[in-house]
Amino acid sequence: MPGVLDDTVTLPISADSLRALSTTVVVPDYDRTALRRSIVHIGVGGFHRAHLATYVDDLARRGHTDWSIVGAGVLPFDARIAEVLRRQDHLYTLVSRGAAETDVQVIGSIVDFVHVTDSPDELVARIADPDTQIVSMTITEGGYPVDDVSGEFVADESAPGGAFDVLVAGLAARRATHGHPLTVMSCDNIMTNGRVARTATIGEAAKRSDDLAEWIDTHVSFPNSMVDRITPATTPADIDWLRDEMHISDEWPVVAEPFRQWVVEDDFAGDRLPLEHLDVIVTDDIEPYELTKLRLLNAGHSCLAYLAALDGFERVDEAMADPALRAFVTDLLYTEAKTTLPDAAGIDLDDYISSLIERFSNPGVGDQIARLCLDGSAKFPKFLLPTVRAQLTGDGSIERSALALAGWCQYLATVDAPSADPLLDRAVAHATASRDEPAAFLGFTEVFGADLSGSDAFTRAFVDALAALRGGGVQSAIAALITPD
Fold first, then answer.
1. Coil, strand or helix at 151
2. Which of 84-93, 166-175, 343-352, 380-389 is predicted least confidently?
3. Would you place residue 160 in the very low, low, confident or very high pLDDT band (cuts 50, 70, 90)?
4. What is the pTM of this model?
């Protein structure tokens, strides 16, 4: 890594400071004003800035001037990132922390930001603009109005103005003005995320008119994709480190692991991203890659999170340093998740799991357990319960999955923690009822569905796991299943 600036000077991130910063860190070496504003991204959180924005930054560094990002926010709390990026000329610092070294660079691919406040008109106009070729989104697993079990659109008239409401308004304006095709690209951790985004978009459009829904079906593509990069929430300590060690003032840097991965279908209705110039896997069959990531990385994170929280851990790497928790996650991935997965070209599952254990254990990232404890109602149905169903079908093991779910139940019943989970009240109510009747938690059919709620084998495994957890604590419950190495 380059040296640091004069320790008497701390430079703020801005277009004017890039030349001075370039003596110590990697900065955009391209003319940001010459980039076409071709991507609108809804949901500019840490993950987007550590993932898609870095790929687009790579393209700009390779001389591709047709691609840059206009960030967009549709929720009230997006106002903060909009204001921070505006003050920093939409630049930010990416800190990539490995176990042995740290890399720092400034990302320049976001060139503007639109925040929907009282009126969505500016964002609608941006989506309709002929320069816009892709609308991408990172709106979390719970942000799609699609039923997890049936896969059907679920209209929510109580929450107008969401991502798909604004997206469809933009598509309607696009159709009315010039009719150019467009790609809508989900970057969320959802199985067949493109298909789910299509269902949500066309379902929302059909509320306006069948003609609009038919136009979208014909002129808009929704490629499936798989995205991967562990990106914890930025902490005050991260901001302080950047200021004290690198003498860079950034109000909202992003910290991530060095690893990143993107697998995407080559299905673009508008101009096509030059994927051949990026470290991207392009495939016609994305399902094996999606399953691998969701059932191993995402499920591993969620299954670790609640047990680690109950055991008093605050960081993922610290939890992974505990022999019992490390053994639990490792055994879960090899014994229950791996056996349900198909082959994915270029991926050795044993190597992949081994790399995940290393990534989870990376002390440089400092990933927060609290971050992983958000949205359990949205995550478990997508990440873990498909494994449970597959194992039940084949009379396989589900005890480790059951313990992870028991951990979630106990966490909900005993920990008063903030959550973005839209079903939090119902989740807590079922967890509270489980104090008197352990199986009552499985009556949370929005998560478990009628099949798992009515499964005798699953109920027995869950009730036994919850009894072990409540009777002896996390370490004892794990020891009853697994002997740490």
1. coil
2. 343-352
3. low
4. 0.87
Separation of CA 227 from chain center: 8
User: Closest Cα to residue 27, out of 103, 107, 98?
Assistant: 107
The residue with tokens 């400071």 is 17
Q: Is the pLDDT of residue 6 over 60?
A: no
| Dist CA 429 CA 433 (whole Å) | 6
- pLDDT, one tens digit per residue, over 61-100 is 999 999 999 999 999 999 999 999 999 999 999 999 998 8
Instruction: Return all residues near 210 (Cβ < 8 A) that are at least 6 apart.
Output: none
Q: At what angle do helices 376-383 and 385-393 cross, to 10 degrees?
A: 40
In the chain the first and final C-alpha atoms are separated, in Å, by: 36
Mean pLDDT confidence for 345-356: 94
All domains of the chain, ordered by start, with CATH?
11-282 (3.40.50.720), 287-481 (1.10.1040.10)
Structure-token match 């691998």, residue found:
292
Per residue in 279-317, pLDDT tens? 999 999 999 999 999 999 999 999 999 999 999 999 999
Residue 53: closest CA among 125, 113, 121, 141: 113
